[in-house]
């Protein structure tokens, strides 16, 4: 009886620890924001608000953010400071997308 109770407690403890570590690596807010930014860039190219070179630069910034996220997740824990750094980079990239789309340059519309 005591052995099975100990085994059960050990299993529950192991599950709790593994769940906690998985929860600290998952970044759903960051993932959703990255999808949104990619969609904004695609839409900007499609409507002529962004040129292909501008879009390429903006996509490069997004790739850097993905690399930062990958590095943060490498040790199994995304700390509060790492999330804050990624969020800061995302905010800057988002502002860059907005500025490029609204900078008043006249671009030929994309032909479809």
UniProtKB/TrEMBL annotation:
It comes from the Bacteria. Residues 69-92 have a biased composition (Basic and acidic residues). Residues 1-23 form the signal peptide. Residues 69-112 are annotated as: Disordered. The keyword Signal applies. Keywords: Signal. This is Uncharacterized protein. It comes from Hymenobacter segetis.
């Amino acid at each position: 009886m005591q052995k099975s109770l100990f085994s059960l407690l050990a299993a529950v403890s192991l599950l709790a620890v593994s769940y906690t570590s998985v929860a600290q690596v998952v970044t759903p807010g960051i993932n959703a924001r990255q999808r949104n930014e990619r969609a904004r860039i695609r839409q900007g190219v499609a409507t002529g608000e962004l040129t292909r070179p501008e879009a390429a630069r903006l996509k490069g910034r997004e790739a850097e953010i993905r690399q930062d996220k990958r590095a943060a997740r490498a040790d199994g824990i995304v700390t509060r400071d790492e999330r804050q750094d990624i969020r800061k980079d995302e905010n800057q990239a988002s502002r860059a997308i907005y500025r490029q789309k609204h900078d008043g340059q006249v671009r030929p519309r994309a032909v479809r």
